[in-house]
């Protein structure tokens, strides 16, 4: 077993436990989130989005995660340090589920890896999505917890990998 595999076995379960604590704090549940409208079609998701917060944790800086929703229900992006690619399913009444994500295996500084693990963990748990009047995309992963909040991204940096098919990371 190489060092990266060992670190992954140690690091990601710890982050999962810690991220569970972040989403259940009483101060987190008291913040008001605009309800938005239900996502009616994949076309509403299509394009690039910049993650601005993951639950109560604000995201900023050069390692801000970016997510691109492509045609044929493909999703991919940059989680902070690593790229990911997978599928999603959109159901009636705003149900949104992500399939298994393939992720590259780069190692970055601890704060970036923590943020990345938190995002990927929360994406696995997403159950619904909504669009706000301000054009934000909200992905809900747990009842009573603040959503993953995203805004449209005008760059074309990640969309090509989603459109091009199989992942080669």
UniProtKB/TrEMBL annotation:
One Pfam match: META
All residue ranges annotated as the DUF306 domain in the record: 43-144
InterPro entries according to UniProt: DUF306_Meta_HslJ (IPR005184), HslJ-like_sf (IPR038670), Hsp_HslJ-like (IPR053147)
Record PANTHER family: HEAT SHOCK PROTEIN HSLJ
Name assigned to this protein: DUF306 domain-containing protein
């Amino acid at each position: 077993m190489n060092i990266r595999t060992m670190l992954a076995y140690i690091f990601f379960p710890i982050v999962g436990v810690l991220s569970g604590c972040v989403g259940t704090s009483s101060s987190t549940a008291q913040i008001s989130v605009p309800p938005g409208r239900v996502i009616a079609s994949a076309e509403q998701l299509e394009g690039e989005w910049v993650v601005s917060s993951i639950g109560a944790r604000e995201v900023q800086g050069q390692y801000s995660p970016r997510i691109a929703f492509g045609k044929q229900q493909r999703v991919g992006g940059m989680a902070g340090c690593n790229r990911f690619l997978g599928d999603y399913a959109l159901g009636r009444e705003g149900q949104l589920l992500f399939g298994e994500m393939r992720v590259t295996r780069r190692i970055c500084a601890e704060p970036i890896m923590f943020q990345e693990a938190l995002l990927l963990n929360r994406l696995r748990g997403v159950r619904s999505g909504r669009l706000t009047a301000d054009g934000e995309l909200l992905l809900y992963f747990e009842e009573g917890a603040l959503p993953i909040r995203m805004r449209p991204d005008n760059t074309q940096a990640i969309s090509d990998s989603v459109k091009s098919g199989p992942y080669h990371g």
